[in-house]
Amino acid sequence: MATHPIPQSSNDAEPALTHDAWWELFDRLRLEQQRDYAPLGGPVAIFRAEHDADSDAL
């Protein structure tokens, strides 16, 4: 897979991330969030509980 720079926003203070760097950052965030969600039953359980709470409110 070729790496292409991600287009920068109007903020020129930070350099653009390459495609691979962006996905590496995304994967690190995803793994950190998995650890945070684990004691609560995981992300799917949290979303189901939120969905059920919204359904009960109707």
Spatial separation of the terminal alpha carbons: 47 Å
Radius of gyration over C-alpha positions, nearest whole angstrom: 18 Å
Structural class by helix and strand composition: mainly alpha
User: Helix amount, in percent?
Assistant: 55-70%
What profile does the largest beta sheet have?
Answer: none
Number of strands: 0
What can you tell me about this protein's structure?
The protein has 58 residues and is an all-alpha fold. The protein has a domain at 20-46. 59% of the residues lie in helices and 0% in strands. The protein is built from two helices and no strands. It has helices at residues 19-37, 43-57. The protein is elongated, with a radius of gyration of 18 Å. The N and C termini lie far apart (47 Å). 0% of the residues are buried. The mean pLDDT is 81.
Topology:
Elements: H1 19-37, H2 43-57
Brief descriptors of the model:
mainly alpha, 58 residues, single chain
Précis, in short:
It is built from two helices and no strands.
